[in-house]
Design brief:
With 230 residues, the protein is mainly alpha-helical. It has 10 helices and 3 strands; from the N terminus they run αβααββααααααα. Keywords: DNA-binding, Transcription, Transcription regulation. It holds the Pfam family FCD.
Length: 230
């Protein structure tokens, strides 16, 4: 069942976008109190967001206090996404070869159905819609990765997720480009449908190829593409 994101996750989305867009410049030092005041929230959600952004590789914890915004290298992001595609592709291939359990099939199908409802309900995403999309997107990816039952793969992916924008958690959405962003996420949803179909029919090669192609679609929105092409 979908549950609304916590305040920490909502702050996370805002800060992630500020870092990617350059509003928070690479090398800048940031701390809880001024950031909380800037966003009009308490320190607790900012503290949570800082920790998650550190895990995503967008913030570096200072030896004494506070964090430093990490410089985003286009090559680093590209390399991290390429590795993610290889690893998630391998997970999909392995799961297709093993065959979906009834529970895995039910979970993936539920994610697709709920996301389809979301796109049928609206032709523009606000915070609530993005929260729902994010929720089911993460479950979809985690189900495939965990379903592969490959400890080395899971650990390698967890390590790669510490690089900037490499994680399935790291979704961006630019409201100034609402139509193209909506279409991007809808295309990613259609890819989920194709991946699920390949898994159900145990088409290992197709599942791997689709998952590799899918790896960067949700993440690489207008904001990040503009930054990396600058």
């Amino acid at each position: 069942m979908w549950q609304r994101m916590s305040s920490g996750q909502q702050v996370l989305l805002k800060l992630r976008k500020m870092i990617i867009s350059g509003e928070l410049e690479g090398g800048a030092r940031i701390a809880e109190i001024p950031t909380a005041e800037l966003l009009g929230v308490s320190r607790q959600p900012v503290r949570i967001a800082f920790r998650l952004l550190e895990q995503e590789g967008l913030l570096i914890k200072n030896p004494t206090r506070g964090y430093t915004v990490r410089e985003i290298s286009g090559k680093l992001v590209h390399d991290a996404l390429e590795v993610r595609g290889v690893l998630e592709g391998l997970a999909a291939k392995t799961l297709a070869e093993q065959g979906l359990s009834e529970e895995q099939k039910k979970t993936l199908q539920h994610c697709i159905q709920e996301t389809e409802k979301l796109f049928n309900e609206t032709d523009e995403f606000g915070d609530t819609e993005l929260e729902r999309y994010h929720h089911f997107n993460v479950i979809f990816h985690d189900t495939i990765i965990e379903g592969a039952q490959n400890v080395a793969l899971i650990q390698a992916l967890a390590k790669n997720n510490q690089l900037p924008m490499a994680s399935a958690q790291a979704i961006t959405y630019d409201q100034n480009q609402a139509l193209s962003e909506y279409r991007r996420l809808h295309y990613a949803h259609l890819q989920h449908c194709s991946i699920f179909d390949a898994l159900v029919h145990r088409q290992a090669g197709r599942a791997e190829t689709l998952m590799r192609e899918h790896s960067s679609v949700v993440i690489l929105g207008e904001t990040l593409r503009n930054v990396l092409s600058a």
